[in-house]
């Protein structure tokens, strides 16, 4: 096992520690220190949310839901039905067809809702970027750990092969000695002609 971040970086990654990006340096440090690198990023990001970010997330969550679509449909239909009823029964509606006041409210809602949803999407994009960087670090560390395991297994296998060859050589020597002793014994007990 490499003993420091510089040897880890050169042996496993093939670059000097100083030339690696910050994520690879972090991974090299974690491998050297034998510490885990994975963590739940979502909780950390949610803990640092401001009130505005929380509000933007809530508006985007509600604005992109079926509950919003249903409520919005009910409000629009009620507006049209109420204005039509008042127009038919009393001759004067507060927002007659083509519903200019309703269009104004819809435009205002869209002009307010769109930037709030964009803020939430920007925040989500930032969370996704941070998650992707963290996933890269975890994957790189796992890959390097697997490489280290392969090196250890190869070293163990080489050591075992050397030990097996040594044992085999010793067995061959013992068999050779036994054969020579057996020939010598046979020569002693064999009658000479």
Q: What key phrases describe this protein's structure?
A:
single chain, 193 residues, mainly alpha, 2 domains, 6 helices, 81% helix, 0% strand
Could you give a quick summary of the protein structure above?
By secondary structure, the protein is mostly helical.
Protein topology:
Elements: H1 5-13, H2 22-33, H3 41-47, H4 51-63, H5 66-90, H6 100-189
Helix pairs in contact: 1-2, 2-6, 4-6
Average pLDDT, to the nearest integer? 85
The low-pLDDT segments are none
Give the percentage of residues in beta strands: under 5%
Number of domains: 2
**Can you count the helices?**
6
User: Helices and strands: which structural class?
Assistant: mainly alpha
Query: What is the quaternary state of this protein?
Result: single chain
Task: State the distance separating the first and last CA atoms.
Answer: 69 Å
What's the order of the H and E elements?
Answer: HHHHHH
Number of strands: 0
Largest sheet: none
The radius of gyration is 39 Å
- Overall shape: rod-shaped
Helicity, as a percent range: over 70%
């Amino acid at each position: 096992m490499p003993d420091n971040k510089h040897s880890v970086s050169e042996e496993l990654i093939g670059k000097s520690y100083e030339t690696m990006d910050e994520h690879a340096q972090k991974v090299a440090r974690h491998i050297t220190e034998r510490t885990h690198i994975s963590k739940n990023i979502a909780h950390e990001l949610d803990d640092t949310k401001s009130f505005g970010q929380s509000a933007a997330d809530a508006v985007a969550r509600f604005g992109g839901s079926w509950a919003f679509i249903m409520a919005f449909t009910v409000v629009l239909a009620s507006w049209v039905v109420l204005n039509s009823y008042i127009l038919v029964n009393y001759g004067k509606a507060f927002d007659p067809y083509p519903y200019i006041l309703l269009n104004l409210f819809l435009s205002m809602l869209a002009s307010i809702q769109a930037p709030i949803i964009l803020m939430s999407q920007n925040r989500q994009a930032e969370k996704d970027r941070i998650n992707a960087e963290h996933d890269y670090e975890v994957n790189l560390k796992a890959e390097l750990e697997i490489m280290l395991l392969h090196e250890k297994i190869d070293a163990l296998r080489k050591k075992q092969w050397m030990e097996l060859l040594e044992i085999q050589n010793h067995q061959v020597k013992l068999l050779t000695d036994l054969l020579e002793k057996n020939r010598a014994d046979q020569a002693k007990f064999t009658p000479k002609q």
